[in-house]
Amino acid sequence: xxxxxxxxxxxxxxxxxxxxxxxxxxxxxxxxxxxxxxxxxxxxxxxxxxxxxxxxxxxxxxxxxxxxxxxxxxxxxxxxxxxxxxxxxxxxxxxxxxxxxxxxxxxxxxxxxxxxxxxxxxxxxxxxxxxxxxxxxxxxxxxxxxxxxxxxxxx
Length: 155
Known about the structure:
A two-stranded antiparallel ribbon has the order 1-2. 43% of the residues lie in helices and 9% in strands. The model has no long low-confidence stretch (mean pLDDT 80). The radius of gyration is 17 Å and the shape is globular. The protein is mainly α.
């Protein structure tokens, strides 16, 4: 059931863009880093927007990141389908048997955000992200390596 879900949940034909930090020293992961700080007033405003569409702050932030990444990817490959796949960390403690276990439990889930068909405007995209987050959280029991194996290579 989980493998079947993930095989269909990740959209492989979205524009693929690897974010890399070209100034990273040799041997480093090369992963790009982007830090953003939001003023308290902006966070409060974003919380209100999310609440107005029955979504969480996390879904609103995901919608913003998806929108920015999609705009960048679309400018690089205008012929590709509009949308992005974003990896998000989750606690990995989905089972009650792990509640009292000490240690680091984490998993990465892939959220496919369809920026083209989510609806008009940011509120619609936030609602879409909230639904997608709910879907992936319901199927979080599969480890990331198994998700990657289920979806196969992208590009």
